Prior knowledge:
Elements: E1 22-24, E2 27-31, E3 36-39, H1 42-46, H2 50-53, E4 63-65, H3 71-78, H4 88-104, H5 106-113, H6 123-126, H7 138-147, H8 164-192, H9 198-219, H10 237-248, H11 254-282, H12 286-319, H13 325-335, H14 343-356, H15 381-386
Antiparallel strand pairs: 1-2, 2-3, 3-4
Amino acid sequence: MADDERPPEETPWGSERDEPDKLFAGFWWIHTSRHGGLYLTARQQGAIPESLKAHSKNGTGVWWEENTAWSLPVICLLSKRSEASLSEHEQEVLQRAHNTAQDEYPDEWEHLTGRKLEPGESQRRDENLEPSPWTLDWKAALAKEMEAGHLKSESRTMPYEPSDEEKRLAELAQQHRDRLIEQARELEQKYKDPATPEPHKERINSYLNLREQHADHFRDLVATHDPEIRNPDIVNAQHRFGKASATHFHFETAFESLVATDQADYGIFNRQQNHLAEKISTSSDVKAQEALKTRKLIEAYEYLDRTARHIALQSNEITGRPDNPESVSMTRAAEGTNDSPGYLTRAFHLRKHYRELQPEPTIGHSFQAKAQDIVEKPPDRLDRLIEEQDRIARAKQERAGTERPKERERDHER
């Protein structure tokens, strides 16, 4: 790409970068101290329908914010290429874009793909639907079936005994939860310590502001009905955490809110794991049991991926060093090594097996069924930024006179 196609210095979110602009899956990614997103070159802009440009910043089709709008140009441009011409990394980014657009822009996604979304495939659209049977407690539904004589109690198998791997993941999940809670206390101590330099306090304050922005984003998306058992498909770890943030995170009590959010997120995850274990124990169908066990592992790996990356990022905030041992260790566990795949890689491989166990494409996975041979890896910087809780405030210098959105000082705690 020619130098004159690089993003201009001035962006809708200011000119001061937290990091250099990156060319990612064929798109320029910009991250400033205030926000960030994608920049489209003139050639890319020309390939975007005018109807979609309304979702870009200022409606020009040039800038697309990092939370959700980025997904539209990615789908529009990458979907026009043959699957064989896309690198493995581009395929991963495209799949993430489809998932995001299905949730946030269902009408536009249908127009781009020519396919009608089914109930359960779009969070935004489902918010306007009546709760499905899956929003009911599954045990109550099972009891009704048995009472009506449709199921016999003899169909219950022996109590479910988790595998060694399931037990290991459950123990790790508890450890991650406990460490996140410890980190919230450490952040508070660091922030209130008179010996902590002001730039370090400013960095923590910026991080808390990003958490508030993330919570605000999900407050706008929270469904009016219980989302915990909305449908039989795999629960999205990022959405579960976002909904916990929407309920429990408030800037005015930021450090206590960090604890409450992590406790709530783990509580929901743990209940969902227990629900799956009970469903496995009541199923007499071997294939259905295998699918449920696979789903249980997937959701556990994805919870661990989310929490490991979060521990790493908060460790950066506490120490002020991105190369601290805890951050390096947790990042390695999430992303994997040459000898050992990371949490999300394991989950992605299991997702493929899960789809193979279904009698027909499962709700929410119709797009993935088009390209099931994709071997996916943990998300890179783009995905972390899209999944906002993985964003982290970089070390900044004092910016006299620079306005930041929602930047509120915590003078009463200093």
